[in-house]
Design brief:
about 450 residues; alpha/beta; 6-stranded parallel sheet; 5-stranded parallel sheet; 14 strands; about 40% helix; globular
């Protein structure tokens, strides 16, 4: 059901050599680029008509207008199961608490008397938030994308999710209800690469006479390989959060961990997708064997086994990695850079503090990844594929731009003018120096 990789007995290699020993899903965005390029070009030139055509081709339903009517959004909230509404409201409340504390403040540094640099944080004007709608329904992704954008102060927020044949071409009603709870009324029934292209280029109209989607500055949100490829292709025209790949969980555990918990957590991520990665790193043979037994028992009574869980656990991206001790285990998980990393050891907090590469770290037996997916208050849009070594999860910061405001008096410029001219001449850019000299009658003041 799940393979083993034994790294005990020898010194672990460094850097990429260690990463190459670890399980990882194949996720060839480059190959997908050639498939999404004509889709994006078609949307660029034909707008909404192209988006609608691709929706019919890929999602099996043709919509008349990409923009979801306001009454459909309101109706979805009215008909929402009260228990689901309560859960979403609590998820929103907790996410707001965390993301509100991420707000950046304007700060001014006095470099010299009369010379200051102020860093001002300005939200992007307009964002497009993508919410998947393929194998599962993700209203939680609405929460995780919309809340940080709102807390950052973004004024223009548009959400797109694939049209659903079972719901008359509208996105899933639970997604619409989540939008309603968050006060988002600009929602589009578009999925895949065509939705990313719609956000990037805009559409002149939703149909021949419908409401169009204005271009956005930034696109965030998870999706399949074609969504990731479209993001890569259009990056530069739009900002993006990341090229999210298949979901991942790594669990660093010792003999004190409960194998029932560990197995359940590995299965929880395998449930997403047949390419999902579930990795256990442990120094305990006994735990490894117990987790293998638990996987068999729990999978036997799970849903989504044949199309998701079983192929995910059996795939090359999933494994039990045996290490000599927890020090080696820590090196392994830092090399792996998991989207989600659980620490289930006797000294979980101390080990968690030493983790350098992870999208999010879950400490101890009572902080499973499922908590972070919904109600921890943290964000579940996280870097995958080892990108945690250089990228962060979605946050308020994702929607902000830092702008430096430089304010110098005549005396403050005069004091440093000779250095500016010297550096300009060292770089053979005399006009740069001349721009300083012109302010002082072409004679550089002497430093005081």
């Amino acid at each position: 059901m799940i393979s083993r990789i034994d790294l005990r007995g020898e010194a672990l290699p460094e850097g990429s050599a260690l990463r190459d020993l670890l399980p990882r899903a194949e996720f060839d965005v480059e190959a997908a680029l050639e498939k999404v390029r004509p889709i994006c070009e078609d949307v660029r030139h034909h707008g909404a008509a192209a988006v609608i055509e691709y929706g019919e081709k890929f999602d099996g339903v043709r919509v008349e207008d990409l923009r979801v009517p306001a009454e459909a959004i309101a109706r979805a909230l009215e008909e929402l199961d009260p228990a689901v509404r309560a859960a979403l409201e609590e998820s929103i409340r907790r996410a707001r608490l965390v993301h509100r504390d991420q707000r950046r403040t304007t700060h001014t540094t006095q470099v010299v008397p009369g010379g200051t640099v102020t860093e001002k944080w300005i939200p992007v004007d307009r964002v497009g938030l993508y919410v998947p709608g393929g194998r599962a329904v993700y209203p939680s992704s609405v929460v995780m994308n919309v809340v940080p954008a709102q807390e950052a102060g973004v004024e223009g927020i548009a959400v797109s999710s694939p049209p659903q044949k079972d719901f008359g071409g509208l996105p899933h009603p639970t997604i619409l209800a989540a939008c309603a709870l968050l006060g988002v009324d600009e929602v589009y029934a578009a999925g895949g690469a065509q939705a990313i292209a719609m956000f990037a280029y805009g559409t002149a109209d939703g149909t021949a006479g419908g409401s169009g989607c204005a271009p956005v500055d930034l696109v965030t949100g998870p999706g399949n390989i074609y969504v990731a490829a479209a993001k890569r292709l259009l990056k530069g025209r739009i900002g993006i959060d990341a090229e999210a790949g298949p979901t991942e969980i790594a669990v660093l555990a010792d003999a004190t961990a409960d194998p029932v918990h560990v197995a359940a957590d590995l299965i929880s991520q395998a449930e997403h997708d047949p390419m999902a990665a579930s990795v256990l790193v442990t120094d305990s043979d006994e735990l490894a064997a117990a987790v293998e037994a638990e996987l068999k028992a729990q999978v036997a009574v799970a849903r989504h086994v044949d199309d998701r869980i079983a192929p995910a656990l059996a795939g090359r991206q999933s494994a039990i990695v045996l290490v000599t001790d927890l020090e080696d285990g820590l090196r392994v998980v830092n090399a792996y850079g998991a989207e989600h990393l659980e620490i289930q050891t006797a000294d979980a907090a101390a080990l968690a503090d030493r983790v350098r590469n992870a999208g999010a770290v879950f400490v101890g037996p009572w902080a499973p990844v499922s908590l972070g997916d919904y109600c921890a208050g943290s964000n579940h849009v996280l870097p995958t594929g080892g990108c945690a070594c250089h990228s962060s999860g979605l946050s308020v910061q994702s929607f902000l731009r830092g702008v430096h405001i430089v304010d110098y008096t005549r005396d403050a410029l005069a004091d440093v003018a000779h250095h500016v001219v010297t550096l300009a001449e060292a770089e053979d850019l005399p006009a740069h120096g001349a721009a300083i000299k012109a302010r002082f009658g072409w004679k550089v003041p002497e430093s005081k």
